[in-house]
Write a structure and sequence with these properties.
Length: 457
């Protein structure tokens, strides 16, 4: 049957389809998200007989008691930080999306995963739409030796890729990247909304039917989200983001979605000439080079997933030379810092409204947990009064608009992490002291408001 070329509009956020352009998407209520694409439409021609056959061939439901969990075992990658983020290894038959800035190390990490799985005797298929076989080989030689069960394929045709996966039937597949795959039946260009959605549908079906774990690499936009329709993140089982400065040595792998584990779990890596190396103790790594006796420096404890991590908050407060004071933050929420400065001015009477303020999370991590509020407040006051906070004191707690210090989660684990790294005292919310087991070798000080915490400086 002849194909008819027509123009449709897709929402980049949710994938909603419309015959005309609209300013606001009626499905997700986002503005200016519709893009125009040309698609080919073919008449279905499905009669009553075909519909009856389709119903007759439909799979039968299975009792939940008849399902064996032996087939759902996880594969360990041999990279402990990645296994932690995935929730204990790769779940068989899962579809995993890996996003990050260009040059951050996505392909390097996935090549290391392929090497570890191949060394364990598992067949792995690496499909690249951006590099040639020789280019992949050159990058692989930097990482180490590979086994013969590591297979490479350079192809962008989705039909040929699907055929190769079914023929090889590997344990894991790497797709680098999803924006390069195209379906011949879809007339739009590779990387468009319809092409990305169709390719993800194909890989999702392969993963569930054949029990193959598939990693797909996704490019990111300037806002830091995966390019393409937002529905892409809803379709996959796990979404991993690589964070960090491409020119720095550290990399942070964060799980923002995981159907088989906890979300916001992080893994810390260091980029070396032989590839990405795991950082076993992120707290010690983040605090390396911390100044001694400097004002405006406070160590706080933040919980990422199930892991407590100690980071240094630095603040610099000085009188402004302009009519409007300048505020700048790195690694934390800008509006949250302005709010905390307003609380200090209102509740404690500090005249910091005419001061420039700069707040930085040392080490390059991005932390928005409310438990760091008290550390930000103490760092700002320490810099304003030019009084240093004891370098062996840890701080954490959420600050309310009335200046009260509110409870946070996992207080026991935060105190234990501070003791493990040799800290002598912890300033924390008083309400968290109730029901918490005493920890020997460290002094725990409970405060009810920011005034009490500031008096301890």
């Amino acid at each position: 049957m002849a194909k008819k070329i027509t123009t449709v509009f897709f929402c980049q956020e949710c994938g909603h389809e419309s015959s005309k352009w609209m300013g606001q998407c009626p499905a997700c209520k986002k503005w200016n998200t519709f893009v125009e694409e040309k698609v080919s439409v073919t008449g279905s021609g499905m009669g009553g007989a075909s519909k009856t056959a389709a119903v007759r061939e439909a799979p039968k439901p299975v009792e939940i008691s008849a399902i064996s969990l032996n087939d759902g075992e996880r594969m360990m990658t041999g990279i402990a930080e990645l296994d932690r983020v995935l929730g204990g290894g790769i779940m068989q038959g899962s579809l995993i999306l890996v996003g990050g800035d260009p040059g951050i190390g996505k392909s390097t990490l996935l090549l290391q995963v392929c090497r570890q799985l191949s060394l364990a005797g598992r067949k792995v298929l690496y499909i690249s739409g951006e590099e040639s076989l020789k280019q992949i080989k050159l990058r692989a030689m930097r990482i180490g030796e590979f086994q013969d069960n590591m297979l490479l394929l350079c192809e962008t045709n989705l039909g040929l890729v699907e055929e190769a996966i079914r023929r090889v039937n590997p344990k894991a597949v790497i797709i680098d990247s999803i924006q390069t795959m195209y379906q011949e039946e879809v007339s739009s260009a590779a990387g468009s909304v319809s092409q990305v959605r169709e390719a993800t549908n194909v890989f999702l079906r392969l993963a569930k039917q054949l029990g193959i774990s598939i990693f797909i690499v996704g490019h990111v936009t300037k806002e830091g989200t995966v390019a393409g329709p937002r529905v892409l993140e809803h379709m996959v089982d796990t979404v991993l983001y690589f964070e960090g400065d491409r020119y720095a040595s550290y990399r942070i792998l964060r799980g923002v979605k995981n159907r088989f584990g906890s979300t916001n779990e992080i893994g810390v890596f260091e980029m070396r000439k032989e590839g990405l190396a795991e950082v076993k103790n992120p707290s010690e790594y983040m605090l390396s080079g911390k100044p001694k006796g400097a004002s405006g420096s406070v160590v706080v404890c933040s919980v990422e997933g199930t892991r407590p991590i100690l980071v240094e908050i630095q603040a610099l407060v000085c009188r402004t030379n302009f009519g409007i004071p300048r505020r700048q933050t790195t690694g934390t929420d800008f509006n949250r810092v302005n709010l905390l400065m307003a609380v200090l001015e209102k509740r404690l009477g500090l005249q910091i409204g005419d001061c420039d303020a700069y707040v930085n999370i040392a080490g390059g991590m991005k932390i928005n947990e409310p438990a760091t509020d008290l550390g930000i407040v103490m760092a700002i006051v320490s810099s304003f009064r030019n009084r240093a906070v004891d370098e062996k004191t840890l701080v954490f707690g959420e600050v309310g608009l009335s200046g009260e210090v509110r409870a946070v989660t996992m207080a026991q684990q935060r105190v234990l992490e501070a003791k493990k790294l040799g800290y002598d005292a912890v300033i924390m919310p008083r309400v968290n002291l109730e029901g918490m087991e005493p920890v020997k070798g460290i002094k725990v000080i409970g405060v009810g408001g920011i005034g009490e915490a500031i008096d301890l400086i």
